[in-house]
Amino acid sequence: MADPDGPLGATPARLVPRGPAALDRVAEALAAGAVVAVPTDTVYGLAVRASLPEAAATLSRAKGRDEATPTQVLVADRTQAEALAAPGTLTGPIAGLLDRFWPGGLTVVLPRRPGVTLDLGGQEDSVGLRCPDDPWLQALCRRVGPLAATSANRHGEPPLTTAEAVVATLGEAVALVVDGGVGGQLASSVLDLRAAPRVLREGAIPSGALLAALGDAGEAGGS
To answer: Where is the YrdC-like domain (predicted)?
Structure first.
């Protein structure tokens, strides 16, 4: 294992156990512009501050994918999400959907709030938001702000399910890897809500459950 007191960004990455003490170390690394690997309620993820210039490009280089690929944003709560989504977006049926599946394994793609100029890849007027069902990760987002994130793996390969595997595979590109035990193998489901609802990726939540919940929320809102 790498020296835990070695310089930030040393090779291989430093492995730290998830817990209160790790928050300070991870926040420091993120503030310095580093890529960190964190456990989530779905798969291990690579993350940088969403406000970092070239955030999406930095993550894409770390995992070897096209820099134009859209990057999701992890938020601590609905308040952080509302600061990034277009005004009035998180209301009605969408609010009902989030009441049911947030925190959890659902990423919603929404119109972006005017004036939010984050580098997230993809279309500049859209944003993919997820509130993870992980108190430690929510606390990190409260500490440093929303995080641009992607699954921890080489592009085109299966998600890595342990911190040790992340160190072995991606250690040169990652400053810190937070050990949260064995992770899942399914990433979040991605639901595009910019127009007619469309499932872009079926993951932790089945597509049918998402669309049914959205319909139920719409009926409840109209009753």
So the answer is: 20-205
